[in-house]
């Protein structure tokens, strides 16, 4: 008695019907690709120590507002 689980003739016949072109995918990245990946990778926030743990006003949110508000005031006086 032949085991049906080990009979691969029908499977081989079905697979022979299909012709698949597998594209070449290089395994090693080019230097340009590595440079772009390095430049596009996320960076840590260098002023993270100024940000508070809980949501509130912090130096990182107040200083840009004060700097933007000081520009028109300095234009009036000078």
Report the radius of gyration as a whole number of Å. Answer: 32 Å
State the end-to-end distance.
102 Å
Helix and strand pattern: HHH
Which overall shape is indicated by the principal axes computed on the Cα atoms? Answer: elongated
Overall pLDDT, averaged?
80
Strand content: under 5%
- How many helices? 3
Helix- and strand-based class? mainly alpha
Task: Indicate the low-confidence ranges by residue numbers.
Answer: none
Largest sheet, in brief, is: none
Short description:
With 78 residues, the protein is mostly helical.
State the main characteristics.
78 residues; mainly alpha
Can you offer a commentary on this structure?
Helices cover 47% and strands 0% of the residues. The chain is mainly alpha-helical. The longest helix has 19 residues. The termini are far apart. The model has no long low-confidence stretch (mean pLDDT 80).
What are the SSEs and their pairings?
Blueprint: H1 9-16, H2 31-40, H3 59-77
